[in-house]
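Supplementary material to the annual report.
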Amino acid sequence: MNELELIQGLRSGDETAFKFLVANYQDRVFNTAIGIVQNAEDAEDVAQEVFIQVYRSIHNFKGESKLSTWLYRIATTRSLDLLRSRKSKKRFGFIQRLFGEGNEPLHEIPDFNHPGIAMDRKENAAKLFKAIAQLPENQKTAFTLHKLEDLSYQEVSEVMQTSVAAVESLMHRAKQNLKKMLEKESG
Amino acid sequence: MNIEQNKKTEEILNSLDGAQRASVPDFFYTRLKAKMEKGYEPDATRSWVLRPAFAIAALMAILLINATVLFTRTNNTKENSVVDTDNLQSIAAEYRLSESNSLYDLNVEK
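Predicted assembly:
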C-alpha cells in the first residue's frame, strides 16, 4: 500500500488502512514520544492519542508534507503538551500541599533508561536524558528527532515547520546547553 | 583533568548514537482500538478551557469589564447629577418655586 492509497483508505474509514498505518508508524511515534516524555506508559498514551487524532482529522491532512512528517509533528506536539500538563499538575500539587491537602509525596522522577540503548552506554544515556529534560522545548524537539529518530536536519525542519538554518542553530544551542549542564553535574 | 572531563562529556553527549528504536508494548493496537471504541477524547481537545492561560485571560477580561462598567457608571452619575440640579433649578425658576413661596408667605399676603 503506497502513501496515497493509505491516505485514501484512511479517509474512507477503511480499518485495514488504519491497521497498516499503526503497524508501520507505531514505533516511530512511540520512540519520539518516549524520548521527549521519558516514561514508557506516558509515551504509549501519547502514541495512542496521535493515532486517534490522525484517524479523526485525516480529512484535514492536505498532503503538502509526507504522512510521516505529519505524524512526527503530532507526536512532538502531544508529548510537549503532556510535559506541560505534568508540570502544571506538579505546581498545583505543591500549592495543595501548602494548604495541607494532597498526601502524595513530592518525588523526583527516577532516571530514565531508554530501552534501545546498549548496556555499556545506559549510564551515560541516563545522564544525557536527565539533561535533555531541562532543555527548552524547541531544542529538545530538534535534538530528540535528530539524535534518537535519526532524522536529517531537512526532515527535522519540515516537522518543526522551520528552516534548516534554524534547526542547525537549535542543535548548536542544544549541544552547548547540554555540555554546560553535564559539566556542572560532574563538578 | 580538563581534557579528561571534556572526553567524558563528549562520551555522554554521543551516548545516543546507534541507539535502537524503542518498540511499542505488546497489544498496542488492541488497547488503541479499545480506547477509540470508548469514544476517547484526547486531553488537549477536552480540557483547553481548564488551561491556566485561558483561565487567566478569562479572569482578566471579567476584571476589565467590571472596571469599565464601574468607571463609566461613576462618570455618568456625576454628569447626571449636575444635569438634574440644573433641570430642577430651571423648573423651580419657571414656576416660581422658591423657598419664600411657602404657605406661611401666602398667609401673610392675605
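The interface with chain A takes residues 5, 8-9, 11-13, 15-25, 28-29, 31-32, 35-36, 40, 42-44, 52 of chain B (CB under 8 Å).
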